[in-house]
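Q: My labmate handed me this sequence with no annotations at all. I'd like to see what the chain might look like in three dimensions before we decide whether it's worth expressing. Could you predict it?
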Amino acid sequence: MDSGATVIDSTGCSNGKSVLSKSIDEYLIISKCNENSKSSLIINLSEDVTVDAILVQNREDFSANLAEIKFFGSIDYPVKNESQWISLSSIIPINDNREHLLNLND
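A: Here is what I predict for the chain of 106 residues:
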């Protein structure tokens, strides 16, 4: 893959690497979608960058929508404690196939 990133943890998810793919035929699958389960996907960027925006899109017509998606970042991984995660943004996705762009500089 030429994305400059790797998936290093996909707890509660299958096919985590699909989020780095340009193919519309690859999907991230979250095993349990209920309020008591937490899934995480940790992506390591190969270089230090400033993330300006995150693009989210649900391309599957017959899937359940997530209630909320939260995005966190950290300079170091693994983090020594949970407080090292910095909240970047969150979104309550609309159940459609539109792209949802989260601008982090606002």
